[in-house]
Amino acid sequence: MKPVTLREIADQLNISITTVSKALKDYPDVSPKTKAQVRELASTLNYKPNTFAVNLRTNESKTIGLIIPVIVHHFFSNVIKGIIAQAEKKGYLVVILQSNESYELEKKQIDLLMNQRVDGIIISLANDTVDFKHLTDVISSGKPLVMFDKIAKIVNCSKVIIDDRKAAYEATKHLIDIGCKRIAHFRGSLLPQNSIDRFLGYRKALFDNGIAYDPSLVYICECDEKSFEEGQKNTRLLLEQHKDVDGIFINTDLVAIGAISEFKKAGVKIPEEIAIVGFSNWFVSSIISPSLSTIKQPGFKMGKEAFKQLYKEIQSIKKNEPIDFKQIVLKTKLIQRESTKI
Fold it and tell me: Tell me, what's the pLDDT at 25?
């Protein structure tokens, strides 16, 4: 069945197409009686506006692109919810793509979104993104780009982040405050800025509290999709190599949960023999046994703020105004649970 057009409505009411269009948009120069007739007939005929034609006229698609490393992830799922909640309020559709932590796929997805003429892009970088030309090309084209969580500091655009160094410092200091003397760190991959900053926060907390930094106590978790297994694997290595470790700061909660499961298999008591702090505050962190102390990372709010900033920049472009890039830093919070309560 062919869609109903403005012309069909106009012909049936014996008025102009312009009058029908104005009536549907509630223009003041159309009489209330005509508006009512147009709306009633449009409803009867199940008229739907041609959004593609509207978008061509207004030079906007009312869609934005969102590229994230992993969709099945508590933090990123909360970010998605925050972005969609704000986007719906402004009538925007969100096209969600997953880079699978791949730089090459991320580049292809940027090209795809640009070819689809999205109004702007929100992105959290893949772990192995080492070159940022595909991102600077977006900005050079006049399209707004907002980064969140995993960012590139050298790319001049708006960013929504937390203070990863400060949060990691607080997590490590908490372990020190409860009496831990030999503290390991399960960190993320070497490239992402947030992984680097969490490592630096961990190391500074040791330094500030008179504890020598031992690089052999730092274990790398390479693959986000196998975080639980990496937590188990690195815990087995830790038990073989450093039986004197009494605390661990772990880069994400899922890695920490893998570590807890392995310590329990080995008969290591938590927190009596080893205390653990995770990062992100996944839902499951509060229901496992022992429950996991962690840094609360505000994913939903991060998503809301990322879209709000992108929307501001879209409006600036429409008005031919310069974009005011922002770095929005959201607060985190240490949540103490059973894994550090002695």
Answer: 82
Strand 293-296's sheet: what is its strand order? 218-220, 183-187, 247-250, 275-280, 293-296, 333-335
In the predicted model, residues of the chain with pLDDT beneath 50 are none
In a 13 Å sphere around the CA of 322, the CA atoms on its Cβ side amount to 3
What pairing do the DSSP bridges indicate for beta strands 293-296 and 275-280? parallel
- The distance from CA 231 to its chain's CA centroid, rounded to whole angstroms, is 22
Task: Tell whether 157 and 273 lie within a shared domain.
Answer: no
Where b means 16+ CB within 10 Å and e means fewer, 155-176 reads bebbbbbbebbbbbbbbbbbbb
Cis upstream peptide for 322 (omega within 30°) = no
Distance of CA 137 to the CA centre of its chain: 21
Report how far residue 251's alpha carbon sits from residue 258's, in angstroms, rounded to the nearest whole number: 12
Number of domains observed in the structure of the chain: 3
Domain of residue 40, residue span: 6-49
Encode pLDDT of 212-234 as tens digits: 999 999 999 876 656 899 999 99
Asked if residue 1 is part of any domain, the answer here is: no
Both tokens assigned to 273: 């023999």
Distance of CA 60 to the CA centre of its chain: 24
